[in-house]
Amino acid sequence: MVNRNLIRSLDLSEEEWEGELSAAMEAAPPEEMDWGTQEVAVNQIVQGRVLRTEGDVVLVDVGYKSEGIIFRSEWEEGEELPQPGQMIKVLIEDVEDIHGLVDDSRGMITLSKRKAEKIEAWLSVMNSVHEGDVVTGVATRKIKGGLLVDIGVPVFLPASQVDIRRPADIGDYIGRTVQSLVLKIDEARRNIVVSRRALIEAERTEKKAQLLAELEVGHRRKGVVKNIADFGAFVDLGGIDGLLHITDMSWGRINHPSEMVAIDQEIEVQILHIDYEKEKIALGLKQKSPSPWENVAAKFPVGKQIKGSVVNVMSYGAFVKLEEGIEGLVHISEMSWTRRISHPSELVQVDDEIEVVVLKIDKDKHEISLGMKQTQENPWDRATDRYPIGAVVKGTVRNLTNYGAFIEIEEGIDGLLHVSDMSWTRKISHPNEMVEKGHVLECRVLSVDQERRRIALGMKQLADDPWASNIPMKYQPGQIVKGPVTKITNFGVFVGLEDGLEGLLHISELADHKVENPEEVVKVGEEIEVKVLRVDADERKIGLSRKRVEWTAEEIAADATATGANKPSPAGPPAELKGGVGGGSGPLIAPRTAKPEGEAVAAE
């Protein structure tokens, strides 16, 4: 016995009824149904004559001993009920056999008009519709995964098959008449799957071949915008899509294609390129009008000062719009003569109106180089007049290097204070021994290289050179002085005489005996008494001796006589001294050749 509740439940779910009906009719497939007999059998469609309506049922005579009933709910609200004597087709759903005899007059037959109509409709469709056929119907409902389309019976249109590009909401198609291609028919399950996309693609394939044969580069054609991406828009030309790239939309700057076009908008485009093998077409909008770069050199000659609007700011510069479709770049290096700029946004912002000067034009690359600083006077052009040699200037220490300090005299103009120009007497290894970043100093201008934009400054030049008078007068040969040991080297010892001034005590002048290691005799910081041997103002060096401090006059005279130290050399002045002021390299005492050890020589 067929499950009566199962068949009756078909009324509850329109999108599932076909599957349940197939299961309910498993014992009697539709193609095996006998349409010509009135013998009562479950799942049979028969002709019945309406007898009357009683309460919630319509009584129908189907040629059985007892009457069959159809529930009034099978007719839609407002639908006219059949009249007595009217013939209708019905499905025998069930025969209730009280005593186990099907011909018992007290048995009741349950009928269904609606299911008979649906089965008839399916049978009609199965006979007339085949896979590959084109069918037309109205989209009636949105269900999971797609739409139901009524072509006489509900068929399934998957969401992926609604259109070439899946729409955002397939519910927009409800109520629309659509044509579709039958993809699959499952007779057993009473299921038909259709595709609107397949039909569109088939039509487009035919149109595409025809269109590709017609199109030519340079032609203009109308199309409809179908999709918009960050890089451009796809335009349907009537069978084939072309790409309208963002760079081909306008001669001017645009940030997104949606600024120029909208989906479903009809536009006229120009064919730029056709790839017949890959079936790709490049389109252009801006090419419909002349390029503003054609006469750019005449409109914006090099050297011309013009006003423009900042349209974009990058780390390397700012793009300035001169007119629609014409932009130039102000490189960060062309923004200011004097300011040190880390980012262009320190000077300009988007939408700022600024004055610029045209520096260079590359018509082929559509590039214009602009300058902002060229609209102002270059302070270096008058640096020689503003900072003459010998002038005293005041500035701030901006940066320190191993070789000196950069002093900012005014914004954007620095001078270099070299370590050699910081002190007359001190041997300076690094500028931080004398100055610190941020210090305000006074310096004297030593030289100005206007072309190379360099100014040399000196700090020691603010005072007189002590080597010219003070030091030679203060330190005389033979003079006994005291000072601390400031540095020990393998060739001798440096002794501090006063602030920044040092003399060299050569290793041979440390003691009467031969010294291999000066550290065995003296220590750094130890104050010792030494004798001045020589003061060389030209070389800015002072030679010292410790062993001669206690020498008597006779010893000094004997040494002088033995070495001839006070006699001029036959070849000229005394041999060149080695060594120097604090930290200098090389021996202070000249090498002896066939001379007694301990000969007094001049300090460098």
The low-confidence runs, each spanning 5 or more residues with pLDDT under 50, are 1-38, 98-106, 565-604
Q: Which structural class do you get from the secondary structure elements?
A: mainly beta
User: What best-fitting shape do the alpha-carbon axes yield?
Assistant: elongated
Rg, Å, rounded: 54 Å
Number of strands: 30
Question: Which sheet architecture does the biggest sheet show?
Answer: 5 strands, mixed, barrel
Strand order of the largest sheet: 1-2-3-5-4
In short:
Helix content is 12%, strand content 36%. It has helices at residues 4-8, 17-24, 113-128, 196-214, 296-299, 383-386, 470-474, 553-563; strands at residues 45-54, 57-61, 68-71, 87-96, 108-112, 134-143, 146-150, 154-158, 177-186, 191-195, 220-229, 232-236, 241-245, 266-275, 280-284, 305-314, 317-323, 326-331, 353-362, 367-371, 392-401, 404-410, 413-418, 440-449, 454-458, 480-488, 492-498, 501-506, 527-536, 541-545.
